Amino acid sequence: MCTLNLSEYDTTTSFPADTIEAHDAVPFCKKCGNQEAQVFLKNKNEYCKRCFLIILRHKFRATLSKSKSVHTNDSILVAHSGKANSTLLLHLITTDMNESISKKLQFSFKVLYIDDGIVKGRSIKERESIQSALAKEAENLQLTMYILPLSNCVTDSICEEMQLANAPLMNMTSENTIVQEIFDNLENDTAKDELLQQLRLKLLVSAARKLNCNKIFIADASVDLAVKVLGNVSTGRGSQLPFNVAFSDTRYKDVTLLRPLRDFTRDDITGYLECYNLHPIFNCDKYNSSFPASIRNVTRNFVYKLDSEFHSTVPTIYRTSEKLAAKRMECENSNTKIDDNVNSDNNICVLCELTSDSSYLSKEQPSVAQAKLFSKLVSTVADTSLNMATNSLNIHELSSNEQIKSINASKEEKHQCQNDIHKSILKQSIIEKYLCYGCRLIFLNSKQIDNILPNFISNAIKKKSQIAHLEKEISDFLL
Amino acid sequence: MPIPCSRQCGKKAILKRPKTGHALCKECFFYAFESEIHNTITQGKLFKPGDKVAIGASGGKDSTVLAYVLKTLNERHQYGIDLFLLSIDEGITGYRDDSLKTVQQNKDDYGLPLKILSYKELYGWTMDEIVAEIGKKNNCTFCGVFRRQALDRGAAFLGVDCIATGHNADDIAETVLMNILRGDIARLQRCTSIITAGADCIRRCKPLKYAYEKEIVMYAYFKQLVYFSTECVFAPNAYRGHARTYLKDLERIRPSSILDIIHSGETLQVKEGIKLPERRNCSRCGFVSSQEICKACIMLEGLNRGLPKLGIGKSTKVKRALESIAKDKCNDKCNGKCKDNEQIDEKDLEF
């Protein structure tokens, strides 16, 4: 932990003995050497306030300029969560804007807060007070801040009108109930938390499009990235890591996600907030209380604990992730027939919009996906013919036979109401086909999967399965 | 109300599978567990008919179940492989001597031949002696490095085609996490592969890769297999302990997370253009190594020279120590006339 050399901050509990000793001696700033050190970092560097802030500002600018991904005239949407990270980011950008022209960052920006209070169990009153706090913050920093309720993700036309922070709370009772229902039907905290993350991202991107922003700043600091790395791996999203934690995430063609705080440590953030006496709207404890039994929360506790015991673990984790990529399989013969573009589009997960990783694995090699299918098969089907099937190692066929059956069943349904394909109920296997491994886990075991899918997902699935259907019909004539 | 077996065999279920959550009766559980391993073996093409396969046997639950299942499946499905047990005696009083008795019993129960190799034979040191030198901290590093090579040496000595180890899904998931925490991308890339092999090293495979630790215990329990279940008497690896606790927490929240982690590992690879340590052979002992001289040789050298900490911790220290060793050797051999050799040595020994 880091602290300012001020008596008002309690230094007795969590600080190692050597920093307390250092207080007696009052060392000098490591950088300028003629000021008394006021900020003590965990890596034993000690700075005066002024130098510390210069270093942080430089870190921020260096991250941006090194990547060369922000240009003049870019319009940037800053995602604000109300927590320490994004509070710092906002402050950093606004103070930068007040710099002299030569040093100024050359881009315009807007701020967006996504109000996910309904799924986190916040009362209307709480949400209103959060909103007024946001409005105040926007006024202090003189910036344009928008608020977008999470319920917007179930309406077909996402955010027709962007709402400013100082406007009254929008009343969306019917949408609220839908969202509430979706989350109530999910199996556990992990599923809820994961879906919330995905929906937030969706909203963020569509808001950016609406506001004509071509880039989004996300205030993930190094420790957040470490949590993301482990959380992603633990939820079967290993192959998506390169997108989810990279400095620049280019999964959407028109909007780029950037993480300019990726080199900031926990020390840096607390130090910065203390220097400027900033108070984030949410303190950490309050935020942690939502979905306590989710994998992300467990991972966060794990990483924070490691971070306090082994200082180099967090940088190691997120640097490791920089060196990783999704496994590429050589294109199999069967795929070459189909146009590459269509094919790759089909492999995109409808929820997270990343390439579905089932395509990375060859069918001959044993894999987790197949082991899972086999486990399910072998502990539910009483069929003795299974013995033969296992001998000829055709579980894949066997399971796909089942899938085909269900697909056929749904096709029959489609034929029954031929004109009305949109109303046909989506079968679980079809839904799963268009989701990636990680997103499939969200909806696995949830009650009434076909009912609870947010509109945009079920629409996308219907569209995709229809196209797949068409493709099948004309497949004989495709060269 | 009794829960019926989910395979609809008509019997009452007596257990809930930790892996899938299905309720099964005893016979159906055996069937499911064995078929899964059989499927892994056939699909992964782990063995070829006529292979001589050594089972790395520690006497613990994983290797006991592995030995039993491999023997059963070999007979049932005619893999045509020649199985036997290979044990390493680290020389840890109060732990390995007891567990080796279990292996002895496995040998008698399953009628498989057994070969025991000891650290004393291979390296001239027992773990007890090593711990007396370096204390209880870091001793797992020695044991781990030595055991890996000991299995290779033993297998080469016996002329086997393949070593089957009892790594289960939990172990592999834990290793994936550990390799991320330690930033070991090379190992991260290969730790999930079911077969590891190189041009001139013995094939290793993990038939229990997709088997949950809990199910292995269940299997041993219902089959009443005897296994040895005491923790090693020396302090367990603290850092790994954190990863293990984390994994257990994850499994409690979502039982599939163990497989999900392995899936992540399977779908990841090192980015193009990132330099990986190349695999070569130790210039002293000839076994696989990532360095000019393998870790086992360095550690052994340290022990024999009274520098037991060599090989643990800072690599700069290792380098310095090795330089002085090389110098000593030079002086011994040619009375300091080989300046050129010295420089080459320095370069080669960069860690």
Automatic annotation (TrEMBL), chain A:
It comes from the Eukaryota. One of its GO terms (molecular function) is nucleotidyltransferase activity. Keywords: Cytoplasm, tRNA processing. GO terms for cellular component: cytosol. It is found in: Cytoplasm. InterPro entries: CTU2 (IPR019407), Rossmann-like_a/b/a_fold (IPR014729). Pathway: tRNA modification; 5-methoxycarbonylmethyl-2-thiouridine-tRNA biosynthesis. Plays a central role in 2-thiolation of mcm(5)S(2)U at tRNA wobble positions of tRNA(Lys), tRNA(Glu) and tRNA(Gln). May act by forming a heterodimer with NCS6/CTU1 that ligates sulfur from thiocarboxylated URM1 onto the uridine of tRNAs at wobble position. This is Cytoplasmic tRNA 2-thiolation protein 2. It comes from Frieseomelitta varia.
UniProtKB/TrEMBL annotation, chain B:
It comes from Frieseomelitta varia. GO terms for cellular component: cytosolic tRNA wobble base thiouridylase complex; mitochondrion. Residues 52-229 form the tRNA(Ile)-lysidine/2-thiocytidine synthase N-terminal domain. Pathway: tRNA modification; 5-methoxycarbonylmethyl-2-thiouridine-tRNA biosynthesis. Plays a central role in 2-thiolation of mcm(5)S(2)U at tRNA wobble positions of tRNA(Lys), tRNA(Glu) and tRNA(Gln). Directly binds tRNAs and probably acts by catalyzing adenylation of tRNAs, an intermediate required for 2-thiolation. It is unclear whether it acts as a sulfurtransferase that transfers sulfur from thiocarboxylated URM1 onto the uridine of tRNAs at wobble position. It is found in: Cytoplasm. Its EC number is 2.7.7.-. It holds the Pfam family zn-ribbon_14. Coiled coil: none annotated. GO terms for molecular function: ATP binding; nucleotidyltransferase activity; tRNA binding. Belongs to the TtcA family. CTU1/NCS6/ATPBD3 subfamily. The lineage of its organism: Eukaryota, Metazoa, Ecdysozoa, Arthropoda, Hexapoda. Residues 280-310 form the Cytoplasmic tRNA 2-thiolation protein 1 C-terminal domain. This is Cytoplasmic tRNA 2-thiolation protein 1. Keywords: ATP-binding, Cytoplasm, Nucleotide-binding, RNA-binding, Transferase, tRNA processing, tRNA-binding. It is an enzyme of class 2 (transferase). GO terms for biological process: protein urmylation; tRNA wobble position uridine thiolation. Its main location: cytoplasm. ATP binds at residues 56-58, 62, 88, 166, 171.
